[in-house]
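Thread amino acids onto this structure.
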């Protein structure tokens, strides 16, 4: 159990640092008030987890600790719903209901579509 928690913790740390760096990089490339950095991280994370789920369905390609490292750890640290909700809260607080609505709808719809795309790509291989 301790080993499993260690793998998840290292994955979460790596995912969280990756999320922060990528989100800031993307956000700094735009002057928009729209939280595009977090949006892109969430969409990329959905795609990655779709790829992983597709790989897992192909058979015993990974051991349990590696699966937990990648999904619960890395992807969990990389795509946090709390960051998503925090961004929406800030948009509402600033009175920007349009961006909030667009951000919420686009994140959910695109997230599912990219998860499905990642899964489907692995199934084609």
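Threaded sequence (125 positions):
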């Amino acid at each position: 159990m301790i080993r499993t928690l260690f793998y998840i913790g290292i994955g979460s740390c790596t995912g969280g640092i990756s999320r922060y760096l990528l989100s800031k990089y993307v956000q700094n490339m735009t002057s928009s008030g729209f939280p595009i950095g977090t949006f892109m991280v969430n969409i990329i994370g959905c795609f990655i987890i779709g790829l992983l789920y597709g790989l897992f369905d192909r058979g015993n390609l990974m051991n349990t600790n590696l699966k937990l490292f990648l999904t619960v750890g890395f992807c969990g640290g990389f795509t946090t719903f709390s960051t998503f909700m925090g961004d929406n809260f800030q948009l509402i607080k600033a009175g920007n209901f349009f961006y909030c609505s667009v951000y919420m709808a686009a994140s959910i719809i695109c997230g599912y579509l990219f998860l499905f795309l990642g899964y489907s790509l692995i199934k084609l291989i």
